[in-house]
Design a protein that fits this description.
about 240 residues; alpha+beta; Pseudouridine synthase; 13 strands; about 20% helix
């Protein structure tokens, strides 16, 4: 299946990555052969080089380069926090109207078959700004509560630490809906039962801004929500609260 291309020139290609697709093959999932890199190579007829990554379950704006030189130039922008990224996500609970999560993140040991744990001494600064766009209260019992509260949130991470948004919102006790690693199993179970056709990590990379490698002009790309997220938001409409 072809990927949705938002922009393409001789230097780079920008896509709206679907949820559930790896950016590239990984040692943690050797059996999975389908990935963005392979699809784009077949679709464009050119080798592509990853610049940054989105988690498998995350959808949205993703940029790839057509040469190692371009990839290095763009990757440096991400490493130096010279890009601007906006995400949208659905989280558990009534999130504050706005705020900043300032919490250093350590590397994680993620050997297959072993429990995940922090590697002490690898902590790096990480800040994530957020603003809550809407609160919801659903008449679905969750654990010991009679109802389920959710929030639709706009997020701007300053850095790009691995799983930064997911880990930061877990730290704030507002884990992302559909997150199998850091999420709330009680909420995820209720959502699976209520809306079985909309199962996914509720995280979308909505917008990305960076400098073009040749013209050095600022470029901004926006990616539309997929049908599952749109369907969930439509179903949540009746449960809005102030």
């Amino acid at each position: 299946m072809n990927l949705e291309i938002l922009f393409q020139d001789e230097y780079l290609v920008v896509i709206n990555k679907p949820a559930g697709l790896l950016v590239h093959r990984t040692e943690l999932d050797k059996a999975e052969e389908d990935a963005v890199v392979q699809r784009l190579r077949d679709q464009t007829g050119q080798w592509v080089f990853p610049v940054h990554r989105l988690d498998r379950g995350t959808s949205g704006v993703l940029v790839m380069a057509f040469s190692p030189k371009t990839a290095r130039y763009l990757s440096e922008q991400f490493a130096n926090a010279a890009t601007a990224k906006t995400y949208h996500c659905l989280v558990r609970g009534l999130c504050p109207d706005n705020g900043v999560v300032d919490y250093p993140l350590a590397k994680l040991n993620e050997q297959k078959g072993k429990s995940r744990f922090k590697i002490e001494g690898t902590e790096k600064e990480a800040q994530t700004e957020f603003s809550c766009l809407q609160h919801y209260e659903l008449p679905f019992p969750v654990s010991r509560y009679d109802s389920m509260r959710l929030s639709w949130v706009k997020v701007t991470p300053k850095q790009g630490r691995k799983h930064q948004i997911r880990r930061h919102f877990k730290h704030q006790f507002h884990p992302l809906v559909g997150d199998s690693c850091y999420g709330c199993r009680h909420v995820n179970k209720v959502i699976r039962a209520a809306w079985p056709d909309e199962q996914r990590l509720m995280l979308h990379a909505s917008s990305l801004t960076f400098f073009h490698p040749d013209t050095h002009r600022t470029m901004t790309f926006n990616a539309q929500l997929d049908h599952k997220l749109l369907s969930v938001l439509a179903k949540l409409e009746q449960f809005k609260i102030n």
